[in-house]
Specification:
Layout: E1 6-8, E2 18-20, H1 23-32, E3 40-44, E4 50-59, E5 61-69, E6 80-85, H2 91-102, E7 106-111, H3 124-140, E8 148-149, E9 153-154, H4 155-161, E10 166-169, E11 176-177, H5 178-186, E12 211-215, H6 223-231, E13 235-238, H7 246-260
Parallel strand pairs: 1-3, 6-7, 6-12, 7-8, 7-9, 10-12, 10-13, 11-13
Antiparallel strand pairs: 2-5, 3-4, 4-5
């Protein structure tokens, strides 16, 4: 069976609508995939709904005619943000690709006291590459939306912008298993829920990003950062006796949380 490629549009879509792909997507469709008029593909809109589509014109930009909506299987309503301490080299490319593939909603790269990677001039090119990787991975795995990738900031700066619950994967202190810690955070008294009897995976409005998962560098967090995370009300968790590289820990821990809260498996 021929693979049907998926692209994305920022606007809401409806059958019969004519849409032009972005310049990057048009280049990929025309020059890499060599699509031509009459070829079929899939197009996901800004609201996450996906549609069949047909190429009507390839001339500078690629123009599509939107067809029938593609039924999507029901899934979890929770959106997860992964906060990843910057690894060295191109390891972040792998983190972006795989987290986008499993359906993480957002990725926030951060610099920590023990991070080997440090901010560099001209980092915008790397940031744009991550966004392209996230978009490509989302298309290949048939996601309804593209994982948002934020520009790297210091951990303290990111904490100032986050007012929801967060769980920290930490090896420096004894902590509960990750799945249990995440589920406990989601049903903490005082959080607004739609139904007091709802399960944790049903407790929040669809699309709300209620939980962040913080993954530190391989060298761990500094004492000052542990104190800062405690002051922010973080829950701490572990992967037991597993010793993983930071890029592997990001994928494994995100998969555990998403499975436990109903978004995966």
């Amino acid at each position: 069976m021929k693979h049907i490629h998926r692209f994305f549009s920022d606007e809401s879509l409806s059958p019969g609508q004519t849409v032009s792909l972005s310049s990057d997507d048009s280049f990929h469709a025309a020059r890499v995939l060599r699509l031509s008029a009459g070829d079929r593909l899939e197009l996901a809109g800004g609201d996450g709904r996906a549609f069949e589509a047909a190429v009507t014109r390839v001339d500078g930009s690629v123009e599509l005619l939107v067809g029938d909506e593609i039924p999507t299987a029901p899934g979890g309503t929770l959106a997860l943000t992964v906060v990843q301490a910057m690894p060295r080299g191109k390891k972040m490319d792998l983190v972006v690709e795989k987290l986008s593939e499993i359906g993480v909603a957002a990725l926030a790269p951060v610099y920590t006291d023990m991070s080997v990677a440090r901010p560099k001039a001209g980092g915008g090119e790397k940031f744009e590459r991550w966004r392209r990787i996230a978009r490509s991975s989302a298309g290949q795995s048939k996601r309804g939306t593209v994982m948002a990738v934020a520009e790297p900031v210091p951990l303290g700066g990111w904490l100032e912008s986050w007012d929801g619950p967060l769980v920290v994967l930490a090896t420096e202190i004894e902590a509960a298993p990750l799945g249990e810690a995440a589920q406990e955070l989601m049903v903490t008294p005082g959080r607004q829920v739609r139904d007091a009897g709802a399960t944790s995976a049903e407790a929040f409005e669809p699309g709300e990003p209620p939980l962040a998962l913080v993954v530190g560098p391989e060298a761990g967090f500094s004492e000052a950062e542990i104190s800062m995370l405690r002051e922010h009300g973080s829950g701490f968790a572990s992967l037991g006796r597993q010793v993983l590289r930071t890029e592997t820990a990001a994928l494994v821990s995100a998969a555990i949380v998403m499975h436990r809260l109903g978004n995966l498996g």
